[in-house]
Amino acid sequence: MSLVGKKAPAFSAPAVINGEELVEDFSLDQYLGKKEVIFFFYPKDFTFVCPTEILAFQEKLAEFEKRNVAVVGCSTDTENSHWAWLQTPKDRGGIQGVTYPLVADVAKTISSNFGVLAGHYDYNEDGDMVFHGTPVAYRGTFLIDKAGVVRHCVINDLPLGRNIDEAIRMVDALQYVEKHGEVCPANWEEGKDAMKATNEGVASYLASH
Fold first, then answer.
1. What are the alphabetically sorted keywords of the record (predicted)?
2. Candidates 50, 74, 153, 184; catalytic one
């Protein structure tokens, strides 16, 4: 079931903030009424595609911040693993220099509630709990508005890296819609024409494009 249009699942979990500070009770509630949030999941620390994405978000962090958007990452690793990876230089496979929060979903409840856990728990014939699949998060990206509602999400399979510029485009689209009350057509980007959500508005847009 998609979370789009619904309240983002609440959580309180350990995290590393500012690249080095361990906190025990990080929550997205701190942004309610203040900022939109890009909340993204990645499979594992100390892997291959993941650092390219995490560092790409950091490289674009100023673009999100000037739009008043918080960026928060999450995986099923421990906060200690996050911290160690954050202290590891890039030329050794690390993500040193990342400053936005990384949440530790060790219990896998956040990933499960957001629908990105790459597998599921079940019971075998002996009544023992087993896990089917891979017990890590898919590459899920969620755009959450200031009211805490999910407005956009995309979930990639484990080997498929995401497009950070597309996340920025969706932020721009959401903010444009909320400011102007118009809708954004296919391939819309900041600075391009939007349209009114009426038959006349669509006809006028199509006629001019």
1. Oxidoreductase, Peroxidase
2. 50
Q: Which of 41, 50, 36 is nearest to 13 (CA)?
A: 41
- Are 84 and 104 within 8 A, CB to CB? no
End-to-end, the C-alpha distance of the chain in Å comes to 35
Shared domain check, 143 and 69:
yes
- 9 secondary structure, DSSP code: P
What's the CA gap between 40 and 103, in Å, rounded?
A: 10
Angle subtended at Cα 40 by Cα 39 and Cα 45, rounded to the nearest 5 degrees: 135
Give the tens place of pLDDT for each residue, 87-123: 999 999 999 999 999 999 999 999 999 999 999 889 9
Residues 6+ apart with CB under 8 A from 187: none
Q: The domain containing residue 209 runs over which residues?
A: 163-209
Examine the residue annotation and report whether 153 is marked as an active-site residue of this protein: no
Whether 167 is in a domain gets the answer yes
